[in-house]
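We include the entry.

. . .
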Amino acid sequence: MTRDAHFETCNTPPNRLGDEGRRSRFRAWRRLAILALDGLIASGALWLAMALRFDGSINPRFLPLIPQYTTILVIARIASSRLFRLHRWSFLLSGLQDAVRVAYAGLTGTGLFILGTYFFRLTSPPRSVVALEFFVSTAVMGVLRFSPRLAWVYHVDRARVRRDTVQRTLIIGAGSAGEMLLRDLRRSREHDHAVVGFLDDDSSKWGSIVGGKPILGPIHSLPDLVEKYRIAEVLIAIPQLQAQRIREILSLCSALKIRFKILPLSAIYLHKQATLSMLQELSPQDLLQRDEVDFARSPLAHASKGRRVLVSGAAGSIGGEISRQLLQSGVATLVMVDINENELYLSCRRLETRFPDTDLRIEIADIREKGRLSRLFETYRPEHVFHAAAHKHVPLMETAPCEAVKNNILGTRNLVELAGEYACERFVFISTDKAVRPTSVMGASKRVGEILVRHAEASAPGRFRAVRFGNVLDSNGSVVPLFREQIAAGGPVTVTHPEVRRYFMTISEAVGLVLTAAYGEFGALCVLDMGEQIRIVDLARHMITMSGLTPEDEIPIEFTGLRPGEKLYEELMAEEEEHLERADQRIHMLVSPPPGEQCVHMIDEVVAAAGAGDDVAVLRLLRSLIPSYCPASESGLPAHARCQALGHPTTASD
């Protein structure tokens, strides 16, 4: 016994040692009992086979040999059971692979029996006896091993049906994932799902039986089947089901009070191990057809490994996720900067727990104060900078344009200038689709941030890059948490306009692509592929349906009108950005003329006006700086009408 093992034994409570010893003895006796039972089965099967072969009157030629046959057969059967580990049988968790083991053990035992009779030079028993014994022994061994599981499943099913909390359930997807999910549901008592059957769009499966449950028809028959069988919950067991199909299912069931759960995309990589524990509540992320982006596993991740990185806005959704993915990719030092001390502290605690061996620093700083930022750069000498700090709330910035300029323009200029002064290798600015043909101060200020980055790319030694993308699903302050709160409160769910549409991405995907753009060979302005725009009212309806409630009936939807600075549609490319190069499958590179010195001087004037608190001058200078900007304060008209009144071009997406 090793020293550690001796120490552990000495410090283990006596009752625990006693319990473990009793369990060990029980397991040993259990295995011996199973092997003995296999021997008895083989002995009985041999006598039965002899009796059947000779119609009840065994040939005197073989009668004296039966004890020797029995001895050899029992030894062969026990040896084959041990060889295939049938004595370690799990009576409640056995499956198809275990049935195959029983069959192999039966064939092996028969082979050993034949070899034994040959080795001891005994008269070979009739071939029919050997065959009958094989089938009888294998069948009885299989029945005895599988019958406890079948009895347990029957008992669990009957007990579940008698519960008051039982939920009649349909499974969408009759493939391997659906079959394994049903199997796990049937042998578990820790749920209230009474599965009625399957739905699958493969017509060749209709009418078939899977795991004792029928395949009732195609997915579009779901509403009729929900009514017919009084279904309370639907389990989606197709991990690769397209987001468009999920939205169609929710639309089909919008008038029905049912709940949904889904196997996550990760279940694909677990092959056939789909289980009840994998099921997740259907979420807004499932409504997007977006692939995961694992930057830490990409070839570009080595460019960040061992580097000193500073992230501004690290307490926010995007900045926090940038920090997480950078730590995962192996940066040497990460400096998290934000003005929100509480969220920054909590974010840092979470990351320290997950990455305990990383040099993680947090700094409270206002990006508008260049002196404070300069001291941070002097202390940490960051090699890479990710700038995610910003005022992003569109209506609030309409009421405080000077604050938007000071944070989104002055703060960006401070970081850009310091990145140039300290010879940072990379600088990445997080932009937004609202910067394209902006109708809000927030969008205009982010567009100016892009101009600053493009100017630095042309003049500073490092690589300066702006990455533009749309809304991030479920981020702080986004529409999804708001809808979730309104639904939990019983409604109403408020939507600004029935036709308002937005681009959406998940946080992890957006940040993964941002990092890919940051470390790849791209230009100064990159745009992420956002897919199709989604109507906000459809998102609201789907979230209500996912909650098991009925849109417009149990949870009303109210239209409040577009807020100041908002547009019906967003765009990803401005009119002067005509030359579009597809630099990557999901990243586009925009090419446009670099900003001139006059443009940079005008930015100084905007910042000065904001410092003086002159809202009127700020709006005037922003409009001069960005000709496509249509300030909301110019009139009470919608965005496209304001642009027309100001003589700016409009498109359908305005």
Remarks:
- The first strand starts at residue 167 and ends at 172.
- Residues 251 and 542 are 7 Å apart (CA to CA).
